[in-house]
Amino acid sequence: MKLTQGTFSFLPDLTDEQIERQIEYCLANGWSLGIEYTDDPHPRNSLWEMWNLPMFDVAEPKAILFEINACRKAFPNHYIKLIANNSTRGRETVALSFIVNRPAQEPGFRLDRQEAAGRTVRYTIHSYATDRPAGARYNGAS
Amino acid sequence: MNKNLIPDERYRAGVIPYARMGYWAPDYSPKDTDVLALFRVTPQEGVDPVEAAAAVAGESSTATWTVVWTDRLTDCDVYRAKAYRVDPVPNSPDQYFAYIAYDLDLFEEGSIPNLTASIIGNVFGFKAVRALRLEDMRIPVAYLKTFQGPATGIVVERERLDKFGRPLLGATVKPKLGLSGRNYSRVVYEALQGGLDFTKDDENINSQPFMRWRERFLFSMEAVNRASAATGEVKGHYLNVTAATMEEMYERAECAKELGSAIIMIDLVVGYTAIQSMAKWARKNDMILHLHRAGNSAYARQKNHGINFRVICKWMRMAGVDHLHAGTVVGKLEGDPFTVKGFYDTLREPHTPMRLENGLFFDQDWASLRKVMPVASGGIHAGQMHQLLHYLGEDVVLQFGGGTIGHPEGIAAGATANRVAVEAMILARNEGRDYLTEGPEILERAARWCSPLRGALETWKDVTFNYESTDTVDFVALTTPTY
């Protein structure tokens, strides 16, 4: 499967040049950029690990791209996303978020059903990746 | 004391003009805490516009047709609404804009039914006016602060869905009546796993003989969860809980919650009390509340009579819904770009300045009430993506019903076409491209590698709905008062 979280997951993977142009757009809007990575892409996992702090004072797109590539090098088989934070009053949340790295193999999710009273079902989405301990997921062997 | 009043004459038993009863106060300057209303008044032939405006102020506040001595037991000058300005409507010789101020104490805190019982209660049937339309209102911050506002709001909705930086995509299941629960959920599943964020019950699907509500809820949630597992995304289906009684609506909403739905919906026809009740329930239960504006065109569309939809937008933001259908500009339903911008701004902005060209007659501070996500639905398709983004912005749900389900290669392909189109357009916009002009080319380029998008563009490329709007704005520039 292909995980389709993020703003551009239905497009072909963005090149570094395309990513740089999105970074320029974010910086022009005054948003700060952060990099986050995970090996547990459950749709309700809102807390991916931070690759350092959001880069509040970095105004150079190339420097941010450099950090993305450093994160890719450290976690080549993790999901990595770029997040733009908008601190404007009344907004104060993510403005743009898209995946910039994904594992070679994406095992996806299993839907567990617990049959309950009447015809109701309790659903749980189970991330296959989390069957293995953190750190040993997506290590290329799958 | 109002200078038009001569006390001993004012309270002599009998009938005197409303203007002389104190409902016309041209020197009054509205207080920051006043509720302001702007009516479009069409007086009966021979009725002075000022008297018509005063009558509207009177009948929407304290007046009756004759003098009553019991007024004198109250501080009646405070409770009287005051028409304070009357302007002729540009290019409409028999119509007048009447500005009316209401003291804050005329209204119960946090109650849309009470507010509307005054403002639109009796007055629209009043014989001295041939037609009457409520065009706009200014709600004071002091009053806004007594309302919950949207249960979830745009910001939290996006955080819950984990979807940022692009319009959300939806589709209404079609045919809207007649499908069994199982067949209905087929549409939900295909559309969601194909790339849409939401699917939607239509306004008139409740619990009919061909599909009772539980059948729809159970099968649809299977589809939602299957699609979520297939994509790794949060997905939703607006489960319509509209029913005959509050008890029944709560029962359906509770079931939606137990099944893990992220969102429920209600129709505008359930009424203001029911809407406010469901908004409280939604806040309490972490549920997004979608409102379908079923019925609004019955009173909102004609220019000379009824309620302008921008007022409904204001009331619904106060009442606490999270989604509201507010026009598409380019689709099949009513709405010119200037008027629709006024609706969208009213739903989404923290502050809307007076802008007559958008039909906004007052400065409105929204006092940190959360923002309502506008929904664009009705006759839109992937080939219009550049126009939709230009007119409606990115905080909007674009609902392609026919434009998903009618795709020649199937529902999932229709969904993929819409998702690829929106992502390609956002990418181009962010890159600084002139996407409105280059839109067709941007879509064509994406269609080279995305065959579902190619199919959508070929099927609907020439479909447009170019009809003249009924409800348009009156101003291209400022007018000056003449009274």
Protein architecture, described:
- The complex is a heterodimer of chains A (142) and B (483).
- In chain A, 19% of the residues lie in helices and 28% in strands.
- In chain A, a hairpin with a 6-residue loop joins strand 3 (79-86) and strand 4.
- Chain A has two helices and six strands, in the order αββαββββ.
- The longest helix of chain A is centred in the middle third of the chain and has 14 residues, at 61-74.
- The relative contact order of chain A is 0.21.
- Chain A is an alpha+beta fold and 142 residues long.
- A four-stranded antiparallel beta sheet of chain A has the order 2-1-3-4. A two-stranded antiparallel ribbon of chain A has the order 5-6.
- Chain B has helices spanning 7-10, 18-23, 49-59, 76-79, 112-119, 141-144, 153-161, 181-194, 213-231, 246-258, 272-284, 297-300, 309-319, 337-348, 385-392, 402-405, 411-430, 435-449, 451-460, and strands at 35-43, 82-88, 96-102, 129-138, 168-172, 198-200, 236-240, 263-267, 288-292, 306-307, 323-325, 351-352, 364-365, 373-377, 397-399.
- Chain B is elongated.
- By secondary structure, chain B is of the alpha/beta class.
- In chain B, strand 2 and strand 3 form a beta hairpin.
- In chain B, the strands form three sheets. An eight-stranded parallel beta barrel of chain B has the order 5-6-7-8-9-11-14-15, surrounded by five helices.
- Chain B has 19 helices and 15 strands.
- Mean pLDDT of chain B is 94; it is low at 477-483.
- The chains are: A alpha+beta (142), B alpha/beta (483).
- The interface between A and B is large, with 42 and 40 residues.
SSE order and pairing:
The complex is a heterodimer of chains A (142) and B (483).
Chain A: H1 16-28, E1 32-38, E2 49-50, H2 61-74, E3 79-86, E4 93-101, E5 109-115, E6 121-127
Antiparallel strand pairs in A: 1-2, 1-3, 3-4, 5-6
Helix pairs in contact in A: 1-2
Chain B: H1 7-10, H2 18-23, E1 35-43, H3 49-59, H4 76-79, E2 82-88, E3 96-102, H5 112-119, E4 129-138, H6 141-144, H7 153-161, E5 168-172, H8 181-194, E6 198-200, H9 213-231, E7 236-240, H10 246-258, E8 263-267, H11 272-284, E9 288-292, H12 297-300, E10 306-307, H13 309-319, E11 323-325, H14 337-348, E12 351-352, E13 364-365, E14 373-377, H15 385-392, E15 397-399, H16 402-405, H17 411-430, H18 435-449, H19 451-460
Parallel strand pairs in B: 4-10, 5-6, 5-15, 6-7, 7-8, 8-9, 9-11, 11-14, 14-15
Antiparallel strand pairs in B: 1-3, 1-4, 2-3, 12-13
Helix pairs in contact in B: 8-9, 8-17, 13-14, 15-18, 17-18, 17-19, 18-19
